[in-house]
Design goal:
Region (Disordered): 31-60
InterPro entries: DUF305_CopM-like, Ferritin-like
Number of strands: 0
Radius of gyration: 32 Å
Protein name: DUF305 domain-containing protein
Domain DUF305: 62-210
Pfam families: DUF305
Largest sheet: none
Shape: globular
Structural class: mainly alpha
Number of helices: 7
Length: 213
C-alpha cells in the first residue's frame, strides 16, 4: 500500500514537472511574441495620437466660426447690457441677463481656442466697423441699428430689442449650423450645437413675448 502511494506520488510529480516545463516554454514564446506585438502597437499608435494632439484637430471652419462668433456674441452682450438699463419689462431684463450670462463665457472659451491655435483674437469693434461686419455675418446689427436701440426707451425699446435679438439669434443659429457641418474640432462643434439649442429656444420665447406665437 505504501509502495503504491509512493509510485502514484512520483508519477504525479513527473506530470506536474512536465506541465510546468511546457507552461514556461509557452510563456516564453508568448512573451516574446506579445512583447513584439505591444511594441508594434505602441509604435503605430503613439505618433498618431501625438500628432493629433499637436494639431488640435481643428480646421479653417473652426477658426472662422470662433472669430466670427466672438464678434457676434460681443454685439449680443452689448444689446443685453442696454436692455438691463433701458427695458421696461422685467421679463425682457431677465432674458437679457440670461443672454449675457451665456455668451460672455463662450467668448472667453473661443478666445482661448484661437490663442492655442496661434490665431489672433478679433479686436473689439464699434460704429462703422460693426456695419461692415453686419454684411459678412448673418444677424449682425449695423451701427445705425445700434444707435436706434440706444436712443429708444420703455415699451418701444422692449419691442425693438426683442425684434433685433430674434434676428441676431437666427444669424447665430445659421453660423452654428455651418460649424456643425464643416468643423472638425470637437469642443467647437459641441458649442455650436449648444448655441443652436439655446438660441432656438430663446427665439421662440422672444416671439411669444412679441405676440407672434
Amino acid at each position: 500500500m505504501t509502495a503504491h502511494r509512493a509510485f502514484v506520488r512520483r508519477t504525479a510529480l513527473s506530470v506536474t514537472a512536465g506541465a510546468a516545463v511546457l507552461v514556461l516554454a509557452a510563456c516564453g514564446s508568448d512573451s516574446g511574441s506579445g512583447g513584439h506585438d505591444m511594441g508594434s502597437m505602441e509604435s503605430d499608435s503613439s505618433p498618431t495620437a501625438t500628432a493629433s494632439a499637436k494639431a488640435g484637430d481643428h480646421n479653417d471652419a473652426d477658426v472662422d466660426f470662433s472669430k466670427e462668433m466672438i464678434q457676434h456674441h460681443r454685439q449680443a452682450v452689448d444689446m443685453a447690457e442696454l436692455a438691463a438699463d433701458r427695458a421696461s419689462s422685467q421679463e425682457v431684463k431677465d432674458l437679457a441677463t440670461k443672454v449675457k450670462g451665456a455668451q460672455d463665457p463662450e467668448i472667453k472659451t473661443m478666445s482661448g481656442w484661437l490663442t492655442s491655435w496661434g490665431e489672433d483674437v478679433p479686436e473689439e469693434m464699434s460704429g462703422a466697423m460693426d456695419h461692415d461686419m453686419s454684411s459678412a455675418m448673418p444677424g449682425m446689427m449695423s451701427g445705425t441699428d445700434m444707435d436706434k436701440l440706444e436712443k429708444a426707451s420703455g415699451a418701444e425699446f422692449d419691442t425693438m430689442f426683442l425684434t433685433m435679438m430674434v434676428e441676431h439669434h437666427e444669424g447665430a443659429v445659421e453660423m452654428a449650423e455651418t460649424e456643425k457641418a464643416d468643423g472638425t474640432y470637437g469642443p467647437a462643434t459641441k458649442l455650436a450645437d449648444d448655441v443652436v439649442t439655446a438660441q432656438t429656444a430663446e427665439i421662440k420665447q422672444m416671439n411669444k413675448m412679441l405676440g407672434k406665437s
